[in-house]
């Protein structure tokens, strides 16, 4: 579904991604694991059109999306839930969700996706008239995910969904990620919490200083001594 080949991305003179190649098959959850600053968010931003690569290919369903405008990429079926949630604080929950569907014209489909988001995140239904800025961190994360789902993505890019959340909420968010995937959405997940990420993902790539240094099934990485020491707290 997504095929990234030899991707090189720079911030000014800083070489942020150095020849990254990876692929995602339809229906999978694939996770990117790595320390802060390894290039994980940069990769997601490049796929969603927020950054332009210097070289390399990004093929989505066998079509090049490299260097295309972000709204064109959303229209093609890729939604990005950015790090730090980025909800529109002065708008209501409902208005934030409506914005997620701004490229769509199918009223019935939009209504059924509202129902779906409220079913996945009952808390948002209770808060639908509230300003997004008044929500807790966990509720804002739910809203950011719900807003992305309103664009009917076939591929969902999730950047650090558990960041700053209480452990119980992290469990909830990951259960919902699994549920979204089971209803047919492919997911590329960037996550600091390697334990949680590997528990839901089919496969994983490890990124260090802009390079993919390891990849394999989640089970393989979960049992790798190298990964245990570096990312799983040595357990």
Sequence of strands across the biggest β-sheet: 6-7-8-3-9-10
The proportion of residues forming helix, as a percent range, comes to 25-40%
SSE string, helices as H and strands as E: EEEHEEHEHHHHEHEHEEHH
Strand content of the residues, in percent? Answer: 25-35%
Rg from alpha-carbon coordinates: 17 Å
C-alpha end-to-end distance: 34 Å
The overall pLDDT average reads 92
**Helical/strand content category:** alpha/beta
Largest sheet: 6 strands, mixed
pLDDT < 50 stretches = none
Total number of strands: 10
The rough form would be described as: globular
In short:
With 235 residues, the protein is an alpha/beta fold.
Write up what this structure looks like:
The protein has 235 residues and is α/β, with parallel strands linked by helices. It has a domain at 84-152. It has ten helices and ten strands. Strands 6-7-8-3-9-10 form a six-stranded mixed sheet, with helices on both faces. A four-stranded antiparallel sheet has the order 2-1-4-5, covered by helices on one side. Helix 3 runs parallel beside helix 6 (137-149). The radius of gyration is 17 Å and the shape is globular. The mean pLDDT is 92.
What key phrases describe this protein's structure?
6-stranded mixed sheet, single chain, 235 residues, 26% strand, 4-stranded antiparallel sheet, alpha/beta, 38% helix
């Amino acid at each position: 579904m997504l095929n990234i080949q030899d991707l090189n991305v720079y911030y000014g003179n800083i070489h942020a991604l150095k020849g990254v190649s990876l692929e995602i098959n339809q229906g999978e959850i694939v996770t990117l694991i790595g320390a802060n600053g390894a290039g994980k968010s940069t990769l997601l931003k490049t796929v969603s059109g927020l950054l332009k690569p210097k070289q390399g290919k990004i093929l989505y369903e066998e079509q090049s999306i490299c260097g295309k405008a972000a709204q064109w990429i959303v229209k093609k079926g890729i939604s990005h839930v950015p790090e730090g949630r980025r909800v529109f604080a002065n708008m209501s929950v409902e208005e934030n969700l409506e914005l997620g569907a701004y490229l769509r014209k199918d009223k019935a489909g939009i209504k059924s996706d509202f129902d779906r988001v409220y079913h996945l995140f009952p808390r948002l239904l209770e808060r639908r008239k509230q300003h997004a800025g008044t929500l807790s961190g966990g509720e804002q994360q739910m809203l950011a995910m719900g807003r992305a789902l309103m664009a009917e993505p076939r591929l969902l890019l999730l950047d650090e969904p558990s960041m700053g959340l209480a452990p119980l909420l992290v469990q909830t968010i990951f259960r919902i990620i699994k549920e979204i995937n089971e209803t047919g959405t492919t997911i590329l997940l960037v996550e600091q919490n390697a334990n949680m990420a590997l528990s839901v993902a089919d496969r994983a790539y490890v990124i260090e200083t802009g390079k993919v240094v390891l990849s394999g099934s989640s089970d393989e990485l979960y049992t790798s001594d190298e990964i245990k020491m570096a990312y799983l707290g040595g357990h």
